[in-house]
Amino acid sequence: MRKFLFLAVAAVAALGMMAHGAEAAKRKKAVVVVTPWQSFWGSWGVRDQKLAGSNFVVGAASTGAYFALRNDTTRYPSGFAYGATTIACAAISPIVGTLVVQRELSMREVWVSTSNCVIPVVGGWIANNYFDRHPEWDLAPGQRKK
Asked: Around Cβ 1, how many Cβ atoms within 10 Å?
């Protein structure tokens, strides 16, 4: 088992070192308009309704996977189950969100989606309030920090 884990980590590290970004042509930059919700929730969560729906579905699937790992027939500790489902949710949530809204996500949207996986409901609220307090960090897709 240790050899398999070592080989898997080595393969991921090698692929990470080989991957590099390339941009052959200038792309049109997507403009993301973020406006506060006029609802009971205030500034909570993701402000695109399609993205909020995809985050809910991925979070519900992650919760189901957690309880599947913690059932009576398996012997996984709760820390392992939480860690595994959190990592899977954080990896899958931005991918599914990108497919649902069919555009590149802003940094705020990715952080809120990922934070909702780490601390359900409250994590997205914290990340969203962080970006409200630091608007210079909220980069639109294709923008780079100067």
From this structure: 5
Looking at the predicted structure, is the pLDDT value of residue 36 above 70?
no
Of 137, 116, 141, nearest in space to 126 by CA: 116
Taking each helix axis from N to C end, the angle separating 107-118 and 122-133, rounded to the nearest 10 degrees, works out to 150
Residue-wise pLDDT for 54-64, tens only, equals: 888 998 999 99
Q: Report CA-CA distances (Å) from 144 to 69, 77, 137, 139.
A: 40, 41, 10, 7
Question: Residue 115, exposed/middle/buried by CB under 10 A (0-12, 13-18, 19+)?
Answer: buried
- Unique residue bearing structure tokens 């359900």: 120
Model pLDDT, residue 142: 62
